[in-house]
Every structure is written in structure tokens, then in C-alpha cells.
């Protein structure tokens, strides 16, 4: 089975069939990386992507203490 690759811009998510130095969609340089497509875990289970369980996020009820300053003697 041939391995198919895609080149995806990490800035805007545009997909290309070949590597380019500059993304044609957003104009960002050196943001395109190669990713294998058509394989992996999702392809092994029939293309379905497993979803994680949702849970509520709780706020931080404390504040980190401010570290004391150290005198260095440098002007």
C-alpha cells in the first residue's frame, strides 16, 4: 500500500500536495510540514475519530507567591 503524504501549513491549516517554502493561502514562510495521510489509528477503525470525554475546568483558587528579589550589587 502506497503511503500518501500531505503538506499542511501550521499557521492557517491549508493543505497542499507538495512542499512549498511559502504558504499560498496565508503567505507565511517555512510553516508547511509534511504529514502522512490515509493511515494511522483513524484509518484502522474505519475512519471514525474517537472523541474524548468532556469535563468542566475549574479555576485556580490560589495565587503563586511573588519570589523575593535578590540584590546583586550591579548598577
Q: How would a textbook summarize the main sheet?
A: 3 strands, antiparallel
Using only C-alpha atoms, the radius of gyration works out to: 23 Å
Order of helices and strands: EEEH
Q: What structural class should be given to the helix and strand makeup?
A: mainly beta
Mean pLDDT: 80
The share of residues in extended strands comes to 15-25%
Compute the number of strand runs.
3
How does the overall form come out from the CA principal axes?
Answer: flat
- The unreliable regions are none
Termini gap = 67 Å
Percentage of residues in helical conformation: under 10%
| Total helical segments | 1
Which strand order do you get reading across the main beta sheet? 2-1-3
Write the layout of secondary structure elements.
Elements: E1 4-9, E2 15-16, E3 32-37, H1 41-44
Antiparallel strand pairs: 1-2, 1-3
State the main characteristics.
5% helix; 1 helix; mainly beta; three-stranded antiparallel beta sheet; 75 residues; 3 strands; flat; 19% strand
Describe this protein's structure.
By secondary structure, the protein is mostly beta strands. The chain has a domain of 41 residues. Helix content is 5%, strand content 19%. It has a three-stranded antiparallel beta sheet, with no helix packed on it. Strand 1 and strand 2 form a beta hairpin. The mean pLDDT is 80.
Amino acid at each position: 500500500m502506497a503511503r500518501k503524504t500531505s503538506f499542511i501549513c501550521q499557521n492557517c491549516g491549508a493543505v497542499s500536495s507538495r512542499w512549498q517554502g511559502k504558504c499560498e493561502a496565508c503567505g507565511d514562510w517555512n510553516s508547511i510540514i509534511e504529514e502522512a495521510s490515509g493511515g494511522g489509528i483513524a484509518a484502522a477503525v474505519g475512519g471514525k475519530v474517537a472523541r474524548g470525554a468532556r469535563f468542566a475546568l475549574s479555576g485556580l483558587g490560589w495565587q503563586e507567591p511573588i519570589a523575593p528579589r535578590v540584590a546583586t550589587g550591579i548598577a
